Amino acid sequence: MSLSLSITDNADGTGATATIAGADSATTATVYVSLVNQGNNPLAWVSAGSRSGNGTVSLPVLPSYYFAYCAGTVSAAAALTPPIIFLASYASESVQQQVEMAILAKIQTLTLTGLATPPGNLPSSRIMRFDTPMTDDLIPLVGTLPAIIVAPAGEAAETVKPVVNARDDIGWPVNVIILANFAPRQQGYADSIKRWREQIFRAVRFQRLPTVAEVYTVIPEPKAILTWKPPLYDYVFSALTFRAMGRDYRGV
Fold this sequence. Notes:
With about 250 residues, the protein is mainly beta. It has helices at about 95-110, 140, 190-205, and strands spanning about 5-10, 15-20, 30-35, 45-50, 55-60, 65-75, 75-80, 85-90, 125-130, 145-150, 160, 165-180, 215-220, 225-230, 235-250.
């Protein structure tokens, strides 16, 4: 039997779990890891976890891509496994969905004042995320207006730019839409909408998303400050597109 190593992402920010098989019982097997991204520097191998014999071992590494191998003993002789690549991530969802959730969470922390009715601030319950692009037929699902919707950008796709041998810069687009009734008695909301837009713009642009390991900045792509939808012009919209830029590995 030969020594073998498999690794499963915990997908919760705590690292990964390695499974070792083929080692002699009562001997120490150690998993060594190195960040895949070392630039022009050589790989820096460090011990991430060890155990006696076969079984699982926790690898408490920070979210990123890693090379890994196991050193152990098989039939009383030293043995090594071939290196493998594994991902330790914050979540099991797609990066696109993680970006949407991170931007939603950021906006929900803002104090958005200007409601004419109590509580005066826009409640976080009116800041929501849709799984699909925002379209007119989804407006009834929003509920009480004004509201803010975070959704995938239906009119935009990811951008891809090769930057190094093994990684590409990917831009994941997300729409943020402020939606309000357009009626004479509510025209005072126009200034509130513009102020909320500026607050969101400041909070998100050129920032990292702490819960999305792949993303290193968010680039704003502003849309119309205020626009009305025909034919009835019942609603007023203010839209921003944010493109979360991340360096993603190719071929893994």
